[in-house]
């Protein structure tokens, strides 16, 4: 009975997040799969199966600095769960769908436009973001062991850390909630909307928030 409840909660979360995955450059299919006996949601995207809801699974894909180099275009907001317990808890309500929708709206307000906002990473450790016709230059470093990237300048912050995973032609960039709020506050001319978003996130811990980019 308990196992069935966890399965139902997991599939519920997967369905709620389908709009996020489906809005990327590839069509994507949500399936049900198992990993070491644990049921998870599976996204089939660009011919690659991606366990698309758990942060640990996304980071399980081996990302190298070479796979990061290039120009990436913003596609859609992205929400990931830190653990299966968080997935089951939040997946049993409309919370994940609400957070994703609100995140997308906030990113749009600070100029993140699908197909237009870009991030470019060069071999020499420099990077730049182009948003609303303006370019911010910076530098970056990436640790393949932890999957963590540090960006200086290009996201409007002196320095900020995030998780980065590349799967095929998609890049997932995920932040702690307070970090993405800092970005939004820095790039926004108004703190009212970001304040409301912060209040929403205060009710749900264990989430990583960010976006999907495509080549």
How can the largest sheet be summarized?
8 strands, antiparallel, barrel
| Overall body shape | globular
Q: Taking strands numbered 1, 2, ... along the chain, how are they ordered across the largest sheet?
A: 4-5-6-7-8-9-10-11
Q: Domains counted in the coordinates: how many?
A: 1
Keywords:
single chain, 215 residues, alpha+beta, Lipocalin, three-stranded antiparallel sheet, 34% helix, globular, disordered N terminus
Structure, explained:
By secondary structure, the protein is α+β, with helices and mostly antiparallel strands. It has one domain (53-214): Beta Barrel (Lipocalin). Helix content is 34%, strand content 36%. It has helices at residues 2-16, 18-22, 55-60, 65-68, 84-91, 95-109, 177-187, 192-201, and strands spanning 29-35, 38-45, 48-50, 70-81, 118-121, 126-131, 134-143, 148-152, 160-167, 170-176, 207-214. The strands form two sheets. The chain has an eight-stranded antiparallel β-barrel. A three-stranded antiparallel β-sheet has the order 1-2-3. Helix 1 (2-16) packs across helix 5, helix 6 runs antiparallel to helix 8 (192-201) and helix 7 packs antiparallel against helix 8. It is globular and about 40 Å long. The termini are far apart.
